[in-house]
Amino acid sequence: GSGMKIVSDLSLTGRPIRRASMVPRLVLDFTTGALPDGVSFTRAGSATYFDAAGVLQTALADVPRFDHDPVAGALRGLLVEPSATNTQVQSNGGNWSPLAVVVTGGVLVAPSGEQTAASFIETTDAGSHYAYANPVLNVAATRTFSAFVKAAEKKAAYIHIGASAMSQGVFATFDLEAGAVLTPPTYKSGTYTLVGGGIEPAGGGWYRVWISAVCPASAHVGYLATLSAAGALSYVGDGVSGYQVFGVQMETGATPTSYIPTTTAAATRAADQPSITANLGTRDGRVTTEAGVQV
């Protein structure tokens, strides 16, 4: 979303006052990159956002996040999100179950500017080349699986939520050079319901890809895979080709939220809680938005 202005509606009934000369008693402008007077903010822990240079940063507890477009650098506004948990352990590539790929963490420069991204390289085996993220989940829920990926020798990536070596679930494929969808989010088989998927630019050649589904109360995981030059999932690998991976996330919900880094255990981002502390007088002080906050 864009920046935000909050305008108080001072009618006693909560209905707008239809008066040509009406002047708002309170205007809160979030397009400056700072909290306006009359607003306080809390969050019980750190959280990530993109700064004006397109670098993924971490805001400390109780520090508001003024998020930016990671490519253009334009201010997107105050980022306000509910609490969310990333269940993917070792989110930068250290806790995968690979088949015909080699995942090596901490060897490439990530969107944060740190050397924390992983290489994801196919072996010379015939068949599918993939890794699935741990832990395995078995509680029914709507889930979103996402990752930051960057083209290297491989120019496309495959992402999947499901089970049984990717024979069940939902998937999509993406062009990592053009930042485009190759195969739209697609249902494959099993007791899964496709919710959505997409690709978003993250700057520096990185893209965040994601897929979401209603998952059953049986084992399911998130997968990443490589593809042949012709786009096939099953092929003979060359042992050297792959792409870069960072910030793998599995969370409850229909769309991805800001990246939540993990190490040896799942991690939770606390909810952002902005509050209006300005004195609105003795009337009802109902607040309406004139332009959207990121939520």
Give the overall average pLDDT.
88
List the strand order in the largest sheet.
9-13-20-15-16-17
**Helix content percent band:** under 10%
**Largest sheet descriptor:** 6 strands, antiparallel
Q: Give me the Rg, rounded.
A: 22 Å
Listing every helix as H and every strand as E from the N terminus to the C terminus, the arrangement reads EEEEEEEEEEEEEEEEEEEEEEEEE
Number of E-state strands: 25
Shape: globular
Sheet-strand content, in percent, reads: over 45%
Number of helices: 0
Helix and strand layout, with pairings?
Elements: E1 5-9, E2 27-29, E3 39-42, E4 47-50, E5 56-59, E6 66-68, E7 75-78, E8 84-86, E9 96-99, E10 101-108, E11 117-122, E12 126-128, E13 130-133, E14 141-151, E15 156-163, E16 168-175, E17 180-189, E18 193-203, E19 206-215, E20 221-225, E21 234-236, E22 242-252, E23 267-269, E24 273-276, E25 286-289
What does this structure look like?
This protein is mainly beta and 295 residues long. It is built from no helices and 25 strands. It has a 6-stranded antiparallel β-sheet with strand order 9-13-20-15-16-17, with no helix packed on it. It has a 6-stranded antiparallel β-sheet with strand order 10-11-22-14-19-18, with no helix packed on it. The chain has a 3-stranded antiparallel β-sheet with strand order 2-1-25, with no helix packed on it. It is globular, with a radius of gyration of 22 Å.
